[in-house]
């Protein structure tokens, strides 16, 4: 049986770890509330944007637009959104796994890393990190999303990259976060339609000014941008949610361990006292 | 009471404006300035940086919007703007400086100048100034 001192030392160390995880949980709870509020205020914009784009595509049928057909290049740009910090359960590694299991050929992939955790992991695995915008995730702004989006669209238009993907963690609710890999460009009309499901497509005849082609030219960048921005905001909320959960588990685990160790400690203490008494009595009997 | 429609202005960060009793909306699209009354034909268009004027009968509210999409239905107008600001959120001095800078850049005729970008900057600053006036 471990000595009293060892048990006490172990218990104290677990206790201080427990205090840290508890504090971290409180911090991420506050951050989660804020991120959640932000995610909710972004939602109407991205929903409407989605609706508008799918309406245009649904009505204009099979137009041959440059954003709707894949480029000839086999290069794929993948935007990976992870955190800059760990201790968030599976949050970061889920995105890493998503990329590893995506079936993309390593040599064909340019990673646009947002978040140092994903960046470092993918770099170790031998992926090419084309751009690193890890500061963005601390406080994502719409202009950040726009900058990333503009650069990628330029490369897409120049034919350097054929497809653009986005890996992020979608925020369903406080406890459910789903890692997702979505295709940003070319916008596939099938995807938009199938997601629409049986939702009734608005059939009011709509006129466009300028013409559909030109309108798409201007609307799709905004659409992609709103997707990226939405993903950033949702990822931040998911990260804090995941961290909150992980820290909550860690704290309750620490509490369990402490109560177990306390029991052990008390037993050891009792054992030691009993032994001492037995020794004294033995000694007294021997002398008496 | 004149006929009214619903106006919804959304930006990525917030629902900027939502009201049911709008009688007319004025703004600029890539094809020119338009005024929208209720019962307008359905139209989707691209908004360029401009002053958005929201009419409630005789009262007019102004705001600066910086590019986006407008969807007009018979009784509802939805604007998805990248940035939207009320006059009291606009820093007039800064907007003025931006205007002067953009004008100088445009008049310098530098061959490397990104004209489209400078023009956008000029339009944005003009939209801000117009709304703040």
UniProtKB/TrEMBL annotation, chain A:
Produces ATP from ADP in the presence of a proton gradient across the membrane. The gamma chain is believed to be important in regulating ATPase activity and the flow of protons through the CF(0) complex. It is found in: Cell membrane; Membrane. CDD domains: F1-ATPase_gamma (cd12151). Keywords: ATP synthesis, Cell membrane, CF(1), Hydrogen ion transport, Ion transport, Membrane, Transport. GO terms for biological process: proton motive force-driven plasma membrane ATP synthesis. F-type ATPases have 2 components, CF(1) - the catalytic core - and CF(0) - the membrane proton channel. CF(1) has five subunits: alpha(3), beta(3), gamma(1), delta(1), epsilon(1). CF(0) has three main subunits: a, b and c. GO terms for molecular function: ATP binding; proton-transporting ATP synthase activity, rotational mechanism. It comes from Lachnospira multipara. This is ATP synthase gamma chain. It is a peripheral membrane protein. GO terms for cellular component: plasma membrane; proton-transporting ATP synthase complex. Its main location: membrane. Belongs to the ATPase gamma chain family. InterPro entries: ATP_synth_F1_ATPase_gsu, ATP_synth_F1_gsu, ATP_synth_F1_gsu_CS.
From TrEMBL, chain B:
Residues 5-84 form the ATP synthase F1 complex delta/epsilon subunit N-terminal domain. GO terms for cellular component: plasma membrane; proton-transporting ATP synthase complex. Gene3D superfamilies: ATP synthase delta/epsilon subunit, C-terminal domain, F0F1 ATP synthase delta/epsilon subunit, N-terminal. Residues 88-133 form the ATP synthase epsilon subunit C-terminal domain. Keywords: ATP synthesis, Cell membrane, CF(1), Hydrogen ion transport, Ion transport, Membrane, Transport. GO terms for molecular function: ATP binding; proton-transporting ATP synthase activity, rotational mechanism. It is found in: Cell membrane. InterPro entries: ATP_F1_dsu/esu_C_sf, ATP_synth_F1_dsu/esu, ATP_synth_F1_dsu/esu_N, ATP_synth_F1_esu_C, ATPsynth_dsu/esu_N. The keyword Ion transport applies. The keyword Ribonucleoprotein does not apply. It is a peripheral membrane protein. Belongs to the ATPase epsilon chain family. Produces ATP from ADP in the presence of a proton gradient across the membrane. F-type ATPases have 2 components, CF(1) - the catalytic core - and CF(0) - the membrane proton channel. CF(1) has five subunits: alpha(3), beta(3), gamma(1), delta(1), epsilon(1). CF(0) has three main subunits: a, b and c. This is ATP synthase epsilon chain. The lineage of its organism: Bacteria, Bacillati, Bacillota, Clostridia, Lachnospirales. The gene is atpC.
């Amino acid at each position: 049986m471990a000595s009293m001192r060892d048990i006490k030392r172990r218990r104290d160390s677990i206790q201080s770890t427990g205090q840290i995880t508890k504090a971290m949980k409180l911090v991420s709870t506050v951050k989660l509330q804020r991120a959640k509020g932000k995610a909710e205020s972004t939602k109407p914009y991205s929903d409407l944007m989605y609706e508008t784009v799918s309406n245009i595509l649904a009505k204009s049928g099979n137009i041959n637009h440059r954003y709707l057909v894949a480029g000839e290049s086999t290069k794929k740009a993948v935007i990976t959104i992870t955190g800059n910090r760990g201790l968030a359960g599976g949050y970061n590694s889920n995105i890493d796994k998503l990329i590893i299991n995506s079936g993309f050929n390593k040599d064909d992939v340019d990673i646009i890393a947002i978040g140092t955790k994903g960046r470092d992991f993918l770099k170790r695995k031998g992926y090419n990190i084309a751009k690193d915008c890890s500061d963005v995730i601390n406080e994502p702004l719409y202009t950040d999303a726009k900058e990333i989006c503009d650069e990628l669209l330029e490369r897409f238009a120049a034919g350097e990259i054929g497809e653009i993907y986005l890996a992020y963690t979608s925020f369903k609710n406080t406890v459910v976060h789903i890692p997702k890999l979505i295709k940003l460009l070319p916008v596939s009309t099938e995807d938009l339609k199938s997601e629409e499901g049986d939702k009734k497509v608005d059939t009011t005849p709509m006129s466009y000014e300028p013409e559909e082609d030109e309108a798409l030219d201007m609307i799709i960048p905004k659409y992609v941008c709103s997707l990226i921005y939405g993903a950033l905001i949702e990822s931040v909320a998911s990260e804090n949610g995941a961290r909150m959960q992980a820290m909550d588990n860690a704290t309750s685990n620490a509490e369990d361990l402490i109560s177990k160790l306390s029991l052990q400690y008390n037993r050891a203490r009792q054992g030691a006292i009993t032994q001492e008494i037995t020794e004294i009595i033995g000694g007294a009997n021997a002398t008496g | 009471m004149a006929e009214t429609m619903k106006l919804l202005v959304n930006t990525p960060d917030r629902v900027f404006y939502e009201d049911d009793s709008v009688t007319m909306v004025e703004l600029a699209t890539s094809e020119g300035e338009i005024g929208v009354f209720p019962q307008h034909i359905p139209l989707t268009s691209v908004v360029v940086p401009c002053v958005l004027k929201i009419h409630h009968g005789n009262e007019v509210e102004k705001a600066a919007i910086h590019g986006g999409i407008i969807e007009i239905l018979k009784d509802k107008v939805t604007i998805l703007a990248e940035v939207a600001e009320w006059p009291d959120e606009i820093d007039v001095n800064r907007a003025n400086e931006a205007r002067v800078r953009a004008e100088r850049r445009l008049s310098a005729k530098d061959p490397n100048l990104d004209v489209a970008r400078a023009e956008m900057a000029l339009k944005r600053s003009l939209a801000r100034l117009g709304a703040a006036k």
